[in-house]
Amino acid sequence: MIHQMTIIAVFSFLALFSADAIAAPFDVRRHLSTVTRYDASTDTSNLVSFSSAIPNACQPIHLNLVARHGTRSPTKKRIKELDRLTTRLATLVEEANRDGTSDAPSIPGWIQGWESPWKGRVKGGELINLGEEELYRLALRVRDRFPEIFSKDYHPDLYPIKATQVPRAAASAVAFGTGLFSGKGTLGPGQHRAFSVVSESRASDILLRFYDTCATYKDYRESHEPQVEKLKEPVLEEITSALISRHRLNFKRQDVASLWFLCKQEASLLDITNQACGLFNETEIHLLEWTDDLEVFLLKGYGKSINYWMGVPLLQDMFQTMQEAIQANEENQPGGMYERARLRFAHAETIVPFSCLLGLFLEGDEYERIQRSESLDLPPKPPQDRNWRGSSIAPFAGNNMLVLYQCRDKQDQNSSYHVQVLHNEVPVTLPACGTDFCPFEVFKDRVVLPLLKHEFNSICDAKSVVRDVEVPKPCSWSCKFSNFLSGIFSSAQSQRENSEL
Ligand SMILES: *[C@@H]1O[C@H](CO)[C@@H](O)[C@H](O)[C@H]1NC(C)=O
Ligand SMILES: *[C@@H]1O[C@H](CO)[C@@H](O)[C@H](O)[C@H]1NC(C)=O
């Protein structure tokens, strides 16, 4: 019975994530890769139906959370891009009118005189109200779901809250804490209470900002960004031609890239889906979403092992908290003053690699291929289906939870421990374990220990990597692709750019 229910939960989960398997009408807000809002990515009203079957004799005793910050406004650099788009669109309309190529109905009304909603803003990247709500509500659901874990009075050692040294992550931690401890304090009508959020310095945060402290990764990323752009080009070219004939405006590829960016911001932040998003048809949206997902795959995901191996210290930290919780639990310390939950707030660059360490979102035999150190194919191009979707893996407020359970055997009082893995609050099967309720020893032996050999300081020391500088040559799609793949296995030096999501 238990097994059967687990299997049902697993299949429901797969159905949820194989896009459009559920016959819902197309909604562009679910196809925005990592710009997708949490409520568009996960149906939070329906989470109970995904609970896995946990035996009655098992109680949650500790929880590890790592969450991405919530929905945020565009960064300063992107606000500037939208300001440039305003000028470009005005020029295109003017050209069309002058050349008499415009038959009025083909130019969408909103384009005439369009101004960026973020026009003239000199600050960006902050958590917006929608983003606060995402984390606040997540906290209320987590507290409801695990009352055993959150029943204790607040103490910073029982419920440590950590954020990266980036304001939108710290604000996300505060929004979460506000929900988690609401009604438990004395402050104001909401009976709030103060709690602490601690950040490591940016320069040394290898647990949550490993992507910014790992030199090997930074070299890889900087040297491969241009190649990722090259991979996207054919799709953008094709859509650019389609848009030119559809709307009689002489778009360039860069205009279309900016319009897709605008579409994502409008749809996600403002719920406007009939302006920039309305320029594209459904097929084109699927393709644009795929190009974003390719980038996530290659620069943050399974595309290269350094992308996720550098996240091993985070996994190790979680493993250690679980070992300590088990020990404290076994020793039955007086007063029960030991850590119950460790709550972390970070970035897509943290969540995506962490999900890869657990082996999530793979296809077919890909987990075995990773074990044999074989490289994976790129996520298949639409209309083919795929598991690798930014909108599922790392939407705003996307999260992973590892919940430690103690199971008591009634006969002999002995305990066994299990780890439940939740992704965006839905139980997920660990390929290494074959279940979403993994015996702690199996989790240790098959997931954690094999990864510990990738020691952060040695894999991240750029000097240890052979440098070879590739010269990109013009070539066809397939040639670009093979160049890209060969490039994946080398690393080149270039300058630093910080564009975390
Ligand atoms: C969308 O536009 C493309 C051209 O980019 C065209 O080939 C395709 O048939 C259109 N799809 C739909 C569903 O209208
Ligand atoms: C508990 O587990 C240990 C080791 O597996 C075993 O030797 C022992 O008999 C079990 N029962 C009790 C009551 O300790």
Description:
- The protein is α/β, with parallel strands linked by helices and 501 residues long.
- The chain folds into two domains: 2-70 and 127-217 and 304-459, Rossmann fold; 76-124 and 222-300, no CATH class.
- It is 43% helix and 9% strand.
- It is built from 17 helices and seven strands.
- Strands 1, 2, 3, 4, 5, 6 and 7 form a seven-stranded mixed beta sheet that branches.
- Helix 3 (76-98) packs across helix 8 and helix 7 runs antiparallel to helix 9.
- The longest helix has 33 residues, at 215-247.
- The radius of gyration is 24 Å and the shape is globular.
- The model is unreliable at 4-21, 466-480 and 486-498 (pLDDT under 50).
- Bound molecules: 2-acetamido-2-deoxy-beta-D-glucopyranose (2 copies).
- Residues 412-414 line the site of one 2-acetamido-2-deoxy-beta-D-glucopyranose.
